[in-house]
Specification:
This protein is mostly helical. The protein has helices spanning 2-16, 24-46, 66-76, 81-97, 100-104, 108-114, 137-141, 144-147, 153-168, 178-195, 201-215, 219-223, 225-234, 250-254, 260-264, 289-293, and strands spanning 55-58, 61-64, 243-244, 299-300. Bound molecules: iron/sulfur cluster (2 copies).
Amino acid sequence: MARKGEEGKATEAVESRAPHGALKTARVRFAVAVGVLALAAVGYFTATGMGNACAGGWGDLVLLCPLGALTAMVAQHAIIPQAVVSLVLAAAVLLVGGRFFCSWVCPTVVLGKVLPSSRGLKARGDESAGCSEAGCAACARGCGKARGVKLDSRHAILAAAVVSTLIFGFPVFCLVCPVGLTFAGVLLVMRLFAFGEVTWAVLAIPAILAVELALLPRWCQNICPLGALQSLVAVGNRMFVPTVDRESCLKATRGVSCDACVQVCPEGINLHDVAAGATTLADCTKCRDCADVCPAGAISFPLLPKGTPKISTVSASEPDEPGDLREA
Ligand code: SF4
Ligand code: SF4
């Protein structure tokens, strides 16, 4: 009876926490992304800037976007030292911080506020609801799907971006990339107000962005080749990995029907059964939505992994025994 009362309180805690109402980190991420755009705008205006996410740096040290660096070399059929350095540094950043760029720096974070449907939370929630192999012994060992990258439409578009560059001799995808278009839009709007420069692009760029992000609301999850490229390297990321403390998790310890962390994840990661998610931890963008929404505060992002990322298969009706912690 006492346990029932405890479960009731826990369930109330889950229900009272509106899934999308407590995402406090989202506001910080929005502020950071706006700050990056503002910094680029000031740089454009004063001609002392550090560039933008497509090509940024200082003086002779300019780093390229990894997709831009890769396709530039494909286009020129040559090894470009600047592109190689950019790719190596991007790989190092991805190994340390994973795909944090996508949630903290990418201008789609800002565009998502203007066009709310462009960054649909729960974008992959339905797909991650089940796993045909849920509970199989492979999960306990950390099957290939859980530990690696799940290839999807984004990776096919990444391949198409490389092949089209090969065919046409220039990075075709850069023409429609929302990252580049947003920074270009900031520059054009700034020049419009500062110097009265009126060009067709002032109208065309926002129109293209609106079409991409409004008509293709799952751009980030289903289309973005930059995210796909990052996931191929971020598979080696072991720092700041979201980790569930099973002692605190309501689902694991009290059998409460809670999957708030699964439902809120925009990347479709299931922290309780990574193999069942639409994507793996290689696609975690460190947005912290899962931690913010968890009614028990059970999710943290430790600097260094305690062993390896914890993967467990738990069921609301059959909570695991304490200590039945399965690690990949
Ligand atoms: S696992 Fe958590 S931090 Fe990672 S993408 Fe999903 S909600 Fe964001
Ligand atoms: S870790 Fe996930 S399932 Fe567990 S209490 Fe937090 S939100 Fe609920």
